[in-house]
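Exercise: predict the structure of this protein bound to flavin mononucleotide.
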Amino acid sequence: MAEDKEIFEATGISTWGKLQDGPESKLFEPAKVGAWSLQTRTAMAPMTRCFANDKTGVVGEDVARYYRKRAADGVGLIISEGIVVSPRGKGNPGVPGLYTREQIEGWKKVTEGVHAEGGTIIAQIWHVGRLSHHELAGDLPPQAPSAIRAEGNVARLRKPYDTPEEMTLTDIQELVGQFAQAARNAIEAGFDGVEIHGAHGYLIDQFNSDASNRRTDRYGGDLAQRLTLTKEVLKAVIDAIGSDRTLIRFSALKVDDPNYMWPDPDSAIRTFTEAFREAGATMIHPSTMQFTRVLADGKTMHQLVRKYWDGVIVGVGTLDSQTAEQALAEGTIDLAAFGRPLLSNPDFIHRLKNGEPLEEYDAKQHLGVLV
Ligand SMILES: Cc1cc2nc3c(=O)[nH]c(=O)nc-3n(C[C@H](O)[C@H](O)[C@H](O)COP(=O)(O)O)c2cc1C
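Solution:
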């Protein structure tokens, strides 16, 4: 974790049983969610792979093949790896972008392949904020709500994070515009929508957290006020492409602070969901590494979210098939997302349906290759 925190540690996912694939199985039923007609109620969780051309941020045929295989396998909603909205949004070498003509053309090959297999794919749009270094961020200091340096090293570059530059009101306006433009570019590239990366301690989440946001203007203050940027980005993206094509991810997880948890999870979740509703969102993706972890009142993160949210909820976090089926049946979640098992098994859905053993995810073995 210390060396490369976004690359979450491998967990031994070895206890997968054969699923009920009879009429009572919800996981494999087709579903209409937002604007999307999905093959199944499964989703591929967004996973940074760093296979784009490092200079241009353009993805190639290898990336197209990788996503196409998952669509052919029957994944319902493919959420792409994080794709940066501007050069300064980049925090790892080899991360793709969605702000140049060439990048849009590169993504067209990916979306065409997925659609040829009957799949659905959305782009996760991302800005890492202070979790970067000027060598990655176009020779400029990284941007953040306040000039507070994060502890730790930039993944893969292995240099300490730079002290970021505090964003001005003009910078913030520009950033909101970059997210909206990236969403329009995603649609032009053939994506079926976007997921806004508002989680894991990256830029949007840096505004949400009092550890990284000490602003005294309208973007700072209590949690509801710190969520102002989240709301503005959401509104701008929804205005650009519609709420039925827009998903937002959020979390208490932070790559630069693995021990972080909201002081009062129930109240934090109520405040987040109020902000999402106010901005017009209808689909949300609460992110945790452990779906079954109880946060408050005997409830897990997704159960707490369901208390306050009638719309679409995507579940994630070391999910196994039985837990996913149960959460779908209870109505806690509408889609079940899988990350690491889908990274190491291009035919994960097939294996799950048929109770076949899975190739266990191993960061050392699987991160360097696209299977
Ligand atoms: C290699 C790797 C890269 C990841 N990259 C991203 C990312 O770009 N954006 C994001 O929101 N989450 C990212 N995550 C987190 C996953 O989306 C997911 O939430 C996490 O792996 C838990 O799901 P799992 O237990 O099914 O793997 C990444 C995880 C891994 C293992």
